[in-house]
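Example (one chain per record):
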Amino acid sequence: MSSALTIRNLTSRPVELKRYEYHATAPSLSRGGIANITQNVTSLFKNATTPAAPPVTEPVSAFIHQDVSIRVEPFTSLQTDVKPQSPNETIHLTFETEGEQHRLETPTPTSDATTLEPLAENPRFKYTAVYLLEHSHITLYSSAYLSSWMRSLRDDTPLSALSIPGTHNSPTCHRALPSVRCQATSPPEQLDNGVRFFDIRVQPEAPLDPTKAGLILVHGVFPISLTGNKYLRDLLDEVYTFLDRNPSETVIMSLKREGTGDATDAQLSLILKDHYAGDPNRWFTAPRIPYLGEARGKVVLIRRFGLDDSLKHEWGGAGWGIDAENWADNTPNATCPSGHVCVQDFYEVLETVNIEKKIQYSQDHLERAAKCICELPDHGEIPATTPPKQPFYINFLTASNFWKVGCWPEKIAAKLNPAIVDYLCRRHNEPTNTESGPAQASGDGGTGIVVCDWVGYKGNWDLVRCIVGMNAKLEMREHKK
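Predicted structure:
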């Protein structure tokens, strides 16, 4: 017998379950079959790059149906009495918000992305959901077009307050050596599906010649492709194309020097300044965290390299780029001396049994980010003299061991990514009871920057959608001000 259904509402409006119906389903669509499609997570989402899924399947008959009134307040969870009687059943749930109804079928009969089906023309609201099969748990989010999800946020939002999906060694989607490839999809596809943080490692091609701009994309000492060098210039052209098409967005780019040879950080800094990041219309290179309005349409530089002496005098002597030079190695939690970045980057998962430790470190860092409360300006304009105080919480869901097949990036991601989806849907910033009163959640419930491997594999962008959905509480606060 299945457990009773729990509904978690992570939107800014109350939702009310008005009706549920049980329907018989074909054995091929049984719970086990669906679970195999998405590794225990069934997504019901839509974004601008995904074709619309077919409408909710009409059953031959509704053999049990019940009109109810079960209200779920914003950012709360509620266990219902709705309980499937057998594994060969689907449930149709009808939700209502301010008189507008939407219908959801669980488990979904297709692996295609879809939204809750509106039952009226020209709906005002759009909802998406993640159904966690094992726990009989539905999490509702407000829909967002992932290619331009930042457009609903105010210009005076500190960039560090946002929940931002990112990728680790972002351009490593090519045929490469084991543990070098970390991504299933190309950078343009990542951007179109909501990723807004790129982790980039480069090797200067001719560091002794200041007229040469070549920066080879690498991972450690290895090139990212076995078919020839790939270059930062081409990657940036793809980023610029995306930002020109979506001017409401920004891309945070963490740059680090790796590879072989005798190049220095100082040489890299001059190459970047002279040949890449000198245009203020394309790059935000101030040594502070920006507000969203300052960063729209631009690449925001986080530097994991030291500066040439000449660049230490930029910006009134404050330096150049957001300073993450002294990034603690293999750490479960550390803040860079600049105070701009608080990072979880434990990556030495030498045995598969250590993956659970990595999962715990990742969850701990999500909770640190969730407790933050963003200081929003009262007047809705970008403060001229006061930079944001909240640091970037950067949380790497990544690790590897070259010598252990079970600890290659794709193997770890196959366990870690679904675990974090489950955590975000069921437990992240969940209200807890206190001695002084009823359950309350502290903070804005954000995630910070969550840096992933193999996200989007076989079209599964669940993790990105969950991260973007965690901006809802902050957005609600912005609209109330």
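Caption: The first strand starts at residue 6 and ends at 9.
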